[in-house]
């Protein structure tokens, strides 16, 4: 009798989960344009004191978060470090600081997404500076190779983009934006669906000849943005995080589209 009760209880719980994720959440997303929930960690992973201090020193975004959101941010940074392999090339020693800064950059970009760990890449390769890519037979500062499941960076250029926070050049954000874009075109998880829907609104500024011309003439987005849709999205996201106030003032509609695309909320800091 007791066994039957627990079986029924388990069945009921499973049925409830199915209802929530197959019926309630899609309806919720249609109304509010965001997942039903973002953060649910019974036992959030913790960073070491030194790792946490790196976040404090290197990420003003993290410093502004509410205490509860800081716990979520730290958990995601820790999970990222544990999930991906870091490899230094040409004699470069990968330090804990490198891992935290790279993981923090990725977490910043995906903080509004529930399913943030992406299997499109498994390895992060770090070169001391600009490197020759065997895949493209060209020199690169960074690249995402979905076939090899690799994201590669020139550490010199990664740090330069990270330290200068208002020039709209951020190598880490740029390459991780490529990963996120590629993932959301293929995935059907809630965050990816929302990203893709809003992406279509954002990319109209690239596809529409008149809008494209106005953007180009204004000069806010660098010329590289107009290479193709992938570069456009990555450059737009660099600007979104580096000079948000300027972006918001000049292109309020596009800014809101980007906010919706990555589910960026001002209440992160409350």
From TrEMBL:
GO terms for cellular component: cytosol. Gene3D superfamilies: Glucose-regulated metallo-peptidase M90, N-terminal domain. GO terms for molecular function: aminopeptidase activity. InterPro entries: MtfA_fam, MtfA_N. It comes from the Bacteria. Pfam families: Peptidase_M90. PANTHER family: MTFA PEPTIDASE (PTHR30164), PROTEIN MTFA (PTHR30164:SF2). This is Zinc-dependent peptidase.
């Amino acid at each position: 009798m007791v066994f039957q009760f627990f079986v029924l209880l388990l069945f009921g719980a499973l049925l409830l989960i199915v209802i929530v994720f197959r019926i309630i959440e899609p309806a919720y997303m249609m109304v509010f344009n965001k997942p039903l929930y973002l953060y649910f960690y019974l036992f959030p992973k913790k960073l070491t004191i030194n790792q946490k201090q790196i976040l404090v020193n290197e990420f003003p975004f993290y410093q502004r978060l509410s205490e509860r959101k800081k716990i979520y941010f730290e958990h995601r940074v820790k999970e990222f470090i544990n999930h991906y392999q870091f490899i230094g090339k040409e004699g470069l020693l990968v330090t804990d600081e490198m891992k935290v800064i790279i993981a923090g950059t990725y977490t910043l970009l995906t903080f509004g997404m529930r399913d943030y760990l992406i299997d499109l890449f498994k390895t992060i390769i770090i070169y001391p500076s600009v490197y020759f890519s065997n895949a493209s037979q060209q020199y690169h500062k960074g690249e995402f190779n979905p076939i090899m499941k690799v994201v590669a960076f020139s550490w010199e250029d990664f740090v330069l983009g990270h330290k200068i926070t208002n020039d709209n050049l951020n190598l880490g954000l740029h390459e991780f934006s490529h990963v996120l874009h590629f993932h959301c075109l293929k995935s059907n998880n809630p965050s990816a669906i929302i990203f893709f829907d809003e992406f279509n609104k954002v990319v109209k500024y690239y596809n529409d000849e008149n809008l494209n011309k106005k953007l180009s003439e204004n000069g806010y987005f660098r010329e590289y943005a107009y290479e193709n849709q992938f570069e456009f999205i990555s450059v737009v996201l660099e600007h979104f995080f580096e000079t948000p106030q300027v972006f918001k003032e000049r292109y309020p509609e596009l800014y809101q589209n980007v906010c919706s695309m990555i589910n960026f909320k001002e209440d992160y800091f409350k």
